[in-house]
Each structure stands twice: as C-alpha cells, then as structure tokens.
Amino acid sequence: MIDDIWVSILGIIAAALVTSSFIPQIVKGYRTKHLDDVSYWLMITICIGMSLWIGYGIIKNDFVIIGANISTIILNMILVVMKFRYSK
Amino acid sequence: MIDDIWVSILGIIAAALVTSSFIPQIVKGYRTKHLDDVSYWLMITICIGMSLWIGYGIIKNDFVIIGANISTIILNMILVVMKFRYSK
After folding, report:
1. Pick from B15, B7, B26: which is nearest to A48 by CA?
2. Rounded to two decimals, what is the model's pTM?
3. Which CATH architecture has domain B4-86?
C-alpha cells in the first residue's frame, strides 16, 4: 500500500509542473515580443476549464487543485494580455 | 450536500475543456504552418507534469484523471511534431 502522503506529493509535483509550464511561454513571448502563433482559444479554453477545476477543488476541499488552477489561470491571463499588447 | 455524480460531471467537463484547449492551437498551427512563437518547454513540461498526473490517477483509480491527461499528452505530442516539422 502506497502512503497517502506520497500520493499527495506526487499530485503536488504534477500540478506544479503543469502550472510552471506556462512560465517558459511567458519568458519566450516577453523576449521576442511576439505571440502571434499562440492561439487565444488555447488560453481562454484553459481558463474556463480551470475555473471549473477550482469549483471541483472547492467542493472536494482539495487545496492542491484550487491552488494549482488559480496559478495557471493567472499565468494564462498574463499571456492573454501580452499577446493583446504585442499584436497592436 | 451536493451529489457525488454532479461533482464527477463537473470534473469531467473541466478535464474535457482543458484537454480540448489544445485543439484550436493545433488547428491554428496547421492553418498557418507556423508555430515559432509557441515554446517547446511549454509542451514538454506539460507532458512531464501530465505523466505524473497519470501515475496519480492510476494510484487513485481515477479514470477521469487518467483519460484527460493521456488525451492532453497526445495533443501536445502532435503540437511538438508539428512545430519541429514547420521549423525546418
């Protein structure tokens, strides 16, 4: 039987990796000032999906799910604003 | 008390939205034949993170988590191959 604490740690690392994956995209966009090839729909659909995940996390009282999804939404909103500004 | 079935449905819709968010990015990339602005690290880190989620899903016996993450990894691998081919 695998200890619950290790399963939680696995979940936290998984959530942190998925969340942090948007950081290199932000850095790349900031450096090149170019986000034309990134789809608005990618970012918007992720934000809507992750808002539902937050609801799921609140009902299940799961702070890993809530925290990870709030962070990813914030990073995605930064990307949306950057793309909007660079596209002008 | 909210029924468990509705919570599961919320989770399934949330997972489906996050997974399907990569479809417009694939369509946009296919149309423009251009994915230069999309970061390899975005896709690679998401794949690693979601592989860990699959492990978490297997341990927790949660087929929504397993299915959603396998689908998202497949879509991300398609994007990686497209970006590699278009960058030649």
Report:
1. B15
2. 0.86
3. Up-down Bundle (1.20)
